[in-house]
Amino acid sequence: MGCAHRRPSGDNPCPNGNPDRDLLQFNVRLAKSRQALADSNRIERKAFREHARIENAVATYTRELGALLDQRGFTSGVPLSPIPDGGESVLIVQLSDLHFNERVELPSNRYDFTVAAARLAKLAGRVKQLARCFGARKVVVACLGDFLNSDRRLDELLSNATNRSKATLLAVDILRAFLLDLRTDLAVEVYGITGNESRVSKELGWSDALATDSYDLMIYEILRRGFANTSGISFCGFRANELLFEVLGRTFLCLHGHQIGANLQKSVQEIAGKYASQGITVDYTLFGHLHATAIGDYHARNASLVGSNAYAEAGLNFCSKAAQNVHIVTAAGIDGMKVDLQDTTGIRPYPFAAEWEAYCPKSERKLHTPSVVFQVVV
Fold first, then answer.
1. Mean pLDDT calculated for residue range 175-195
2. Tens digits of per-residue pLDDT, 6-20?
3. 265-268: long-range contacts at Cβ-Cβ below 8 A with a sequence spacing of 24 or more?
4. CA 321 – CA 133 distance, rounded (Å)
5. Sorting pLDDT into bands at 50, 70 and 90, what band is 158?
6. Cα atoms found within 13 Å of the Cα of residue 190, Cβ hemisphere only
7. Are 254 and 243 in contact (CB under 8 A)?
8. Helix H segments across the chain?
């Protein structure tokens, strides 16, 4: 009778089922839990590591920037004559897409800091000629962004911290000379917004906090602080994406231009309509971004100081010339014109600290399409 209750040899001793299966399930759950913890720790370590690297890079950048600022003055030894009152007109200079730290070596075009300094000197000369012709006593400089190229890579941010600080100071040095040149004949007002290329962060942002994480703001603020006690040069405002200012009763809207769609006129009127709903009439819109001049009845798109580069010519089959726009505002209307800056023969470039030269030849890199050499897909 006892044999009837005896379990056959090899039966599962566990009353709840197969012990191997239960053990396997338990081990899988344990492994998944451990893996989840490991992934969480890895993500946290990676996030901390990246934030620490960025903070260290920015700290290095700030130290280098401060050290270089100490070496340069703004108006020391520069005589500034008084500006006559009145004037029959006001000039507006569109200043955009300067891309100071880009180098171009093409048969059709060359660009570096020296060429940039010469082209801005030529622009200042044309502005002063127009001021004499139209009886202007004041010029408004609308800075529309993309004054520097930015690679936005962490490793390059670290390794090129010194170069980027020098590029920023070179931009400031050349723009300082440009503004002082205008100041010899005119009172100067400066406004500014950010561009898309000169942003520091990887993401293109529209909020003030993210959009102003930009070298454009940095350059503007250095110039503003440097000219803080200079008679006749006023820095009147900086905004992230859009800015309004008024000249002789007309309202001008400043954009960089990357928010303008393919139908240029339609996009401009849509943006103006946004302000009309707030009771603000925009008389004229100023922008750049596409590096090609287009002057219309209610808007003016700026070209760049660079002109054609390798990516535009070889990658897009698109050629352009170095130019910037100048507008003559009078009681009778707004006259816009392009100032051709491509040829600087006979123009003496502004002096700058050439030992600070640093470049980001970004247009050349755009021609190279990255490819995957080996990829494992699970």
1. 95
2. 444 444 455 555 677
3. 265/296, 265/298, 265/299, 268/296, 268/298, 268/299
4. 26
5. very low
6. 27
7. yes
8. 19-69, 113-134, 154-159, 161-183, 208-211, 215-226, 264-276, 310, 362-365
Q: What is the distance between the terminal CA atoms of the chain, rounded to a whole angstrom?
A: 59
Residue scoring higher pLDDT (228 or 135): 135
Residue 98 sits at φ, ψ, to 5 deg, of -80, -30
Q: What is the pLDDT of residue 278?
A: 93
Burial class (CB in 10 A: 0-12, 13-18, 19+), 377: exposed
> DSSP code of 183?
H
278-282: long-range pairs with CB below 8 Å, 24+: 280/244, 280/251, 281/251, 282/244, 282/251, 282/252, 282/253
Dist. CA 223–CA 206, nearest whole Å? 24
Contact partners, residue 137, CB within 8 Å, separation at least 6: 83, 84, 85, 86, 87, 90, 131, 186, 187
Q: Tell me, what DSSP letter sits at residue 6?
A: P
User: What is the Cβ-side half-sphere exposure of residue 135, based on CA atoms within 13 angstroms?
Assistant: 7
Is 286:92 a contact under the CB 8 Å cutoff?
A: yes
